[in-house]
Amino acid sequence: MRSSSAAAPVAARSTQDPVRAAAPLAVGAALLAIYFIWGSTYLGIRIAVETIPPFLMASIRFLIAGAALYLWSCVRAGTILRPTRREWRDSAIVGAALLGGGMGLVAWGEQTVSSGIAALLVALMPAWVAIFGRVIFGDRLPRLVSLGIAVGLVGVALLAWPTDSGRVDPAGLIALLISPMSWALGSLYSAKRAQLPSLPLLATAMQMLVGGAVLGVAGALTGELGQLHLDAISGDSLAALTYLVLIGSFIGYTCYVWLLRSAPLALISTYAYVNPVVAFILGAVILSEPITPRTLLASAVIVGAVALIVTGRAIARPTRAAGTAIATTESTAITIAPGDA
Q1: pLDDT in tens, 192-210
Q2: Which of 117, 102, 39, 61 is nearest to 240 (CA)?
């Protein structure tokens, strides 16, 4: 998990941008779509990596999605679009951070960590955006956001603390903690430094293409090419990968971009704390992922922390948001989270 951006999974909108009038029913349908679709991508990733190496799976997903979006952008423009070198360079930086680091580590971490817990850890991306924004760019940290960050850390501690009933795999946990950090850094660069194409879909396509290439290199360097056996890929994994490309990337992102132009950011940003709940429920129902009192408590704490952070940033009214999948991280835009793109 624009980047959400109008960029690869990052779509940002200024607080001054007008919201076009749209039928409440249409807004509600689009909102429900990103609630379910992006909440379900964590389940899709979990199933896909059962028989497809994680980095290569993510690479295939975003190379296909990026190529299709690039072609669609050209068709809509009626000409072959030629971004500048600076736009390609900045798209490469953002795509590598968002998809290479953010998405790749989610896929890798979900090999050993349940999809529900993965979604919860990734949901803390707004906290990292706030922290890095403060440390690197000197952004003001509203009290409500600071409180949300503290509460979120308590939630992570609840998940990670070993108990007699089991523990979260340490390597997977670390990967899923680093993932939203990478996504946050990419989102901040996209919002504050990057020069990206003005067409959201084109910017997203470029980031997906570069991110997909980075993920492919990561897969090759970690020996995944030797682990990829086409005859061993299950029908479930192939179906999950297809779902991630067609539904998660195309339909989900299309609904997101439309909402950015048609609904208030405060409403759109609610997906940041609904998606983890959806992921948690789907993982339990479809994959029988265990739900313990501790994970329930940690889930409530983390979702509450995200709500505090999103609300605090909305009240602060920053001039621009980092759109997460991304509306999970903000400055005044919404950021798509790693599993959502």
Answers
A1: 889 999 888 898 899 999 9
A2: 61
